[in-house]
C-alpha cells in the first residue's frame, strides 16, 4: 500500500486507523486492537480528547502522580505531576518533606509582564517613522478596545507599545514591541489578537500619513506574534536553613554536604555542559506541573532556556550560598502561566489539578511551579553530591525493568528484597531474575 495519502484528515477515525495499521503494521488486527485499547470507555470523554487536535486516533497516557507536603509561604499543597520518568515524583516529595521540616519554601512573584512584537519593514526616514508612531500610538489602544475591555476589567491589558529600530541588524527592520498584563490567563490569544490589530493599524495609518512618500507609506508587516521569552514574567522560589541542619542522617556531615552542594551549583553556574543537565533536573519538576495544570510546556521550556542564556552563556537557573552559617538555595525563573482559559477549562484532569491546588491565581501557580522546580533540583543535586544518582534512580527504575520482563508478584518481591542494599543496574536485575527462573 502506498505511504502517501490525500485527504487523510477527511477520513473517519475508523478509516484513519485502518489506513495506518494496513500501511505500516505487520499485524494490522493486533495494532488496531492496541490503538483501541487506549480509547476511553466514556464516549463523551473520548470525543473531548479527540477534538483537542486533528487526526486523533487514540490517547497517549502519561502517569499522573502527586507530591504531597509542599509548604509554600506557610500554605500546604499537594502538587500534581504528569511525567513518565521514574523517581521524579518521589524525589519532589522527599525534597518537599525535607524543606517542610525546615520552615518550607518561600516564593515571590517579581513581575508578570508578557511581550509581543509586530515585525515590519519600512523603507525611509527613521525620524518620520518616529513622528508617525508618536501620532498614531493612541490608535493602537483605541482600535483594540473591544478585546482589551474585558482584560482591563480584570486588571490587565496593554501596558506599553514601543517602536524599536533594528536596522543595524537587518535592513529596514523595525518592531512594535508591546508589553501586556494578562492576569490569570496565559494570554497567548489575547496578545496575538492585539498584535494583529496593531499590524493593521500600522499599515492602514501609514497610507494616510501626509509626510510619508510612496515608499514610506508601504510599510510591510512580516509577522505579529507574542514572544515566549518573558524575562519580566519572573518568580523567585527559595529555601534556607542553618548549615548544621542540612543533614538528615549521621552518615552525612551537614557542613560538608552544604559546602559540596554550593560548589555543585557554582559549577552549574559556570560550566554549560553541567548547566544544561542541572537545568534539565529543574525542568523535570517544572514540566510535570505545567503539563498537569494544562499549560504549554514547550513555551515554558523555550523561555526558561533563553533566560538561562541571558548573560550570553548558558548557566544554572538556581543559585546557592552559605552566609553567616545559613545555607540559602534559590531560583529565579520566567513562567508565563495561566489558570483560566485554554486547556484549563477543557481538560477534566486539569480542572482536577487546579482544584487540588485550591484553584490558584496565575501568580500563585507561578510560585507552586517554581518551588517544584527548586525542590526537584535540590533532590537531584543532593543525590549527586552524596549517594550518587543511580541508587535512587535505579530503585525506581527496577519496577520498569521487572514489568518489561513480565515479573510475577512473587518475583518482584524477591528481586526488590535482594536489591535493597546492593548496587543496581539493568543487567544485574535481569540476570538475577533469570537466575530466579532457572
Ligand atoms: C535526570 O532526569 C535529571 C538529573 O540528571 C539532573 C541533574 O543532574 O541535576 C539527575
From TrEMBL:
Q: Where are the transmembrane segments?
A: none
Entry annotated with the keyword Oxidoreductase: yes
Q: Which reaction does it catalyse?
A: (R)-mevalonate + 2 NAD(+) + CoA = (3S)-3-hydroxy-3-methylglutaryl-CoA + 2 NADH + 2 H(+)
Q: Which GO terms describe its molecular function?
A: hydroxymethylglutaryl-CoA reductase (NADH) activity
Q: Write out the entry's keywords from A to Z.
A: NAD, Oxidoreductase
Its pathway? Metabolic intermediate metabolism; (R)-mevalonate degradation; (S)-3-hydroxy-3-methylglutaryl-CoA from (R)-mevalonate: step 1/1
Q: What is this protein called?
A: 3-hydroxy-3-methylglutaryl coenzyme A reductase
Q: Which organism is it from?
A: Flavobacterium sediminilitoris
Amino acid at each position: 500500500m502506498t505511504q502517501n495519502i490525500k485527504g487523510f484528515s477527511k477520513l473517519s477515525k475508523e478509516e484513519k486507523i485502518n489506513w495506518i495499521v494496513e500501511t505500516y503494521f505487520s499485524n494490522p488486527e493486533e495494532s488496531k486492537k492496541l490503538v483501541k485499547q487506549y480509547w476511553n470507555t466514556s464516549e463523551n470523554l473520548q470525543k473531548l480528547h479527540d477534538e483537542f487536535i486533528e487526526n486523533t486516533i487514540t490517547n497517549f497516557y502519561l502517569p499522573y502522580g502527586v507530591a504531597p507536603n509542599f509548604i509554600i509561604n506557610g500554605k500546604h499543597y499537594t502538587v500534581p505531576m504528569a511525567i513518565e520518568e521514574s523517581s521524579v515524583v518521589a524525589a519532589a516529595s522527599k525534597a518537599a518533606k525535607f524543606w517542610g521540616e525546615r520552615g518550607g519554601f518561600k516564593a515571590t512573584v517579581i513581575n508578570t509582564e508578557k511581550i509581543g512584537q509586530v515585525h515590519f519593514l519600512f523603507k525611509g526616514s527613521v525620524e518620520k517613522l518616529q513622528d508617525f508612531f508618536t501620532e498614531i500610538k493612541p490608535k493602537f489602544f483605541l482600535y483594540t478596545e473591544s478585546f482589551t475591555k474585558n482584560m482591563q476589567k480584570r486588571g490587565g491589558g496593554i501596558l506599553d507599545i514601543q517602536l524599536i529600530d533594528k536596522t543595524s541588524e537587518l535592513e529596514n527592520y523595525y518592531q512594535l514591541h508591546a508589553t501586556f498584563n494578562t492576569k490569570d490567563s496565559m494570554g497567548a490569544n489575547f496578545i496575538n489578537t492585539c498584535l494583529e490589530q496593531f499590524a493593521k493599524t500600522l499599515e492602514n495609518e501609514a497610507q494616510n500619513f501626509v509626510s510619508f512618500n510612496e515608499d514610506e507609506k508601504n510599510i510591510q508587516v512580516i509577522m505579529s506574534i507574542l514572544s515566549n521569552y518573558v524575562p519580566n514574567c519572573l518568580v523567585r522560589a527559595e529555601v534556607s536553613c542553618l548549615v548544621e541542619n542540612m543533614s538528615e542522617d549521621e552518615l552525612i556531615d551537614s557542613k560538608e554536604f552544604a559546602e559540596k552542594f554550593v560548589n555543585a551549583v557554582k559549577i552549574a553556574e559556570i560550566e554549560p555542559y553541567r548547566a544544561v543537565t542541572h537545568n534539565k533536573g529543574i525542568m523535570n519538576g517544572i514540566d510535570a506541573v505545567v503539563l498537569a495544570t494544562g499549560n504549554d510546556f514547550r513555551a515554558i521550556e523555550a523561555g526558561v532556556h533563553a533566560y538561562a542564556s541571558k548573560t550570553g552563556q548558558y548557566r544554572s537557573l538556581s543559585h546557592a550560598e552559605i552566609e553567616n552559617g545559613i545555607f540559602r538555595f534559590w531560583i529565579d525563573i520566567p513562567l508565563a502561566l495561566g489558570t483560566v482559559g485554554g486547556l484549563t477549562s477543557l481538560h477534566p484532569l486539569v480542572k482536577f489539578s487546579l482544584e487540588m491546588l485550591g484553584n490558584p491565581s496565575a501568580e500563585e501557580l507561578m510560585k507552586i511551579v517554581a518551588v517544584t522546580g527548586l525542590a526537584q533540583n535540590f533532590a537531584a543535586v543532593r543525590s549527586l553530591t552524596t549517594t550518587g544518582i543511580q541508587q535512587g534512580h535505579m530503585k525506581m527504575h527496577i519496577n520498569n525493568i521487572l514489568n518489561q520482563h513480565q515479573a510475577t508478584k512473587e518475583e518482584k518481591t524477591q528481586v526488590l528484597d535482594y536489591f535493597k542494599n546492593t548496587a543496581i543496574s539493568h543487567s544485574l536485575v535481569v540476570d538475577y531474575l533469570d537466575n530466579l527462573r532457572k
